[in-house]
Write a structure and sequence with these properties.
2 copies of one chain form a homodimer. By secondary structure, chain A is α/β, with parallel strands linked by helices. The first copy, chain A, folds into 2 domains: 144 residues, Aspartate Aminotransferase, domain 1, CATH 3.90.1150; 225 residues, Type I PLP-dependent aspartate aminotransferase-like (Major domain) (Aspartate Aminotransferase, domain 2, 3-Layer(aba) Sandwich), CATH 3.40.640. Chain A contains 14 helices and 15 strands. Chain A has a 7-stranded mixed sheet, sandwiched between helices. In chain A, strand 11 and strand 12 form a beta hairpin. The first copy, chain A, starts with a helix and ends with a helix.
Amino acid sequence: MLSKKSAGIKSSAVRELLKFSKIPGVISLAGGIPATDLIDVEGIDTVLKDILSREHRGLFQYSVTEGEEHLREQLSRWNSEHNLNVDAESIIITNGSQQAIDLLSRVFLEKGDKVFVERPTYLAALQIFGYTDATVVELEYDSEGIQLTLLEKEMATGGVKMVYLTPNFANPTGNTISYEQRVKIAKLSQQYRVVIIEDDPYGHLRFSGDPVPSIFSVAQSLFGKNHNVCYMSSFSKIFSPGLRLGWLAVPEHFHMATVVAKQALDLHTSTLNQSIAAHYIESGRINERVEILKATYKDRRDYLIGSLHEYSGGDITWNTPDGGMFLWCHLVEDIDASQLLQECIKENVVFVPGEVFFARDPQKNSLRLSYSMLTAETAREAVIRISRALKKIK
Amino acid sequence: MLSKKSAGIKSSAVRELLKFSKIPGVISLAGGIPATDLIDVEGIDTVLKDILSREHRGLFQYSVTEGEEHLREQLSRWNSEHNLNVDAESIIITNGSQQAIDLLSRVFLEKGDKVFVERPTYLAALQIFGYTDATVVELEYDSEGIQLTLLEKEMATGGVKMVYLTPNFANPTGNTISYEQRVKIAKLSQQYRVVIIEDDPYGHLRFSGDPVPSIFSVAQSLFGKNHNVCYMSSFSKIFSPGLRLGWLAVPEHFHMATVVAKQALDLHTSTLNQSIAAHYIESGRINERVEILKATYKDRRDYLIGSLHEYSGGDITWNTPDGGMFLWCHLVEDIDASQLLQECIKENVVFVPGEVFFARDPQKNSLRLSYSMLTAETAREAVIRISRALKKIK
């Protein structure tokens, strides 16, 4: 009775994996989750108590689909401090940026469309596109960055509707797209009328290197308001994932259709939670929190890299991302990371095999290691355990 | 660039209407919203302060897709007090029941499928089905209740995938499906393997007549756990719409596909809000609140009906629902309710023209009057204004 697209679905490997990560004694490098110890509970509580002390009956009633004006205005103001000029009127509040991807896939994608994604890319974006009738095509990276030749060629022949990119410290690769390539992408998008989805959950978590302007900003400065880039970000990595808050900025010619789709999906996002976020940004605490996160994640990245240097015995290679929460690794001998994971589960350490991030022809020897929750000690112990497991199956 | 389904979308008439309803001096019978003055702000605040006083860091972290166990258990227990036996394991928490409809349409509907709905039916369900490739077919009501002959015939010939019903005090008609018909629907669903979506946001708001068992319960008692009825309800009408909380109970053979779809849509529903609802149910305050709502809505229904008797001069007919928030009305002369609305806007009173609740061939002389927000005075004044507007265009 299930639709063809649903009938094939099994519980995902990652979903099953997260169960292991909750067993006491297991060190998890699997979750794409921010550090629980760094959530500013005191700050959220202060804001919440402040909200409760004022007239707040309206927060429990229905609200507008596009999101609370207070939050959209605070987001607009706060982003302008970070070189992203977005009008409050362009912003739509969503249940995390996950919903924003779904929303746009609903608004744009239909049978015959092609969606280009990075290879590899965010797993849950692949899941969403899997519910549509569009075809997913992967863009390779090489030493020059993301390969745009295939994209340009396909754009010229038609059928490309959307390009989904995470330009800053992508999940899982940690890749950042260069300024020159962002300009090129913005221009291609305009020339061939292709929607760019710029997913930027990690942009504020840069701890080395220089910030690069968003594709949205580039397109806006080149083409004014009628460009084709939709920008989305999230409160999940810098504030609180449990509140399920993300936001989306779309050019005016996409705005009405996107709001109407959001209305059909779930009317609007929790008014109480939007108010918490608006007051938190307004209080200025968000900037202090981002500084703490950046410093801590840099340390944690370095703990993990240091441990890999010391204990992986040359069996694993990795990147060194300038931000975000992940190392993207490969096993140097052609070992299947899923097989390694089975051994690692016995050693009480888990990670996500890289294969789940590919639309097709996965790199079986790839793996994603999240460092967001590590300490110096758990990083060291995790790599020792992984290396021990690796020796068993080599 | 928008998909064909999105390209045709304009801002809905109802959406535009809600703007008028916020102008001071305007009496609105338009909104499908619970009474703001009856939201138990004190109760929610008490629960929230209690949550903040305990260890609650986990509420701000990611949670599980199916919903917090505490909430699912409280829902299971509370429903059992109201003759609905639903295991906590069958429950999936959603962002209002709106999202539950979307979720199931994602899980089941594909090209070639037919979805049967009541004629007329909930506007936003029609919007959701409009994003799918399924075809909507309407089921008429007559003096015997909902007409099942066409449905049975079409089920026998195949192609029917889903039947979407609001069996208690439907929006907009106030109709309730009889016990005999519920049994018949459950049996047809089983015989022809057709999914029944039982949308029940108003079930707790019965203020006259006897409760009728849900189709879900009927199917469960007839066929055990492997029936085909999905039940959904909402906290929006009895607790708080702004928190965006609904819930869905599905038979086991649909459970995994539904959870995976929810994961793709937005990972999970706000953990904080789920915790508020769980504690609120546990505290027992929800039962007191439902009693207050029922008594008040009955009064408000009677104010509106009394005013229609007194002031509408025989120009309007209406139903008398046993619960919920709406009167379903018709203009006795063949006057277009949309035209009447234009005159009513000048008179500072608004309602929703009934035509928006039809998939096709709308009854142009129908209108929905919401009484949830009325007082004796505003009900009287509203009907006087509508009658005055009506006289102008007759």
